[in-house]
Predict the structure.
Amino acid sequence: MAPTSTPQTPFGRVLTAMVTPFTADGSLDLDGAQRLAAHLVDAGNDGLIVNGTTGESPTTSDAEKAQLVRAVVEAVGDRAHVVAGVGTNDTRHSIELARAAQAAGAHGLLTVTPYYNKPPQEGLYQHFTAVADATELPVMLYDIPGRSGVPITTETMTRLAAHPRIVANKDAKGDLGRASWAIATTGLAWYSGDDMLNLPLLSVGAIGFVSVVGHVVTPELRALVDAHTSGDVAKATEIHQRLLPVFTGMFRTQGVITSKAALAMRGLPSGPLRLPLVGLTEAETEQLRRDLAAGGVQI
């Protein structure tokens, strides 16, 4: 059974986009995934995104994706929302992944804007609607034009919000003005998908985060959102400013790479990366250590 949710916070407030641990030979580490999921929920996450970009979804098979959802649901599904990434640039494939995620026990779906083929807004509308129609699970859209090449316009977002199962958006557009209009217009639960903008997005109506830095600072993110929600903006701002070195350090290169490095530093499951991603150099590793230390992260 999925954890309790409300229309205002359908997946909770603090979610981490979880890496996919691999063994030394590069195969799926399901035991490690369960241990990491438990650690992240113990740290204060309301939910986890599995099979997202940070989970190396471009290089995991459909079978591995289903196995991972099943394992994470088994580990933490009674106390955290397990949201499965099912976004591709092929609507039929996304529908297949959505149905497989539902069968594996996922509590919700994350579906990214189709990438590379650059569909028009009507194509986006039909794509997201078809995925939402394919299962009974609530859907979080993922708007990230820097990766996909195409933004979801406010008009399209408003049309999509009329679907009974499209309940949220993960915003990595980096445009507070557009976010303000979309939050006001759509009524969707709005999640920051850009850690540096977590606090600014809360200020214009976001309700929480889908975070990468949550791998190392979930308690601080929880404190930030709780402070802001309770009206203590000064405290939220202080936490945000204290975390600036972490936000910067975790995105000096691709976030999967730094997340796995940071987890390894803390003795938590991570494992190697699958090409075309590669590990940090020794110099980059030391820079990440300095960044994390400057933000108060104990390594």
About this structure: Residues 153 and 200 are 20 Å apart (CA to CA). The chain has a mean pLDDT of 97. The radius of gyration is 18 Å. DSSP finds 13 helices and eight strands in the chain.
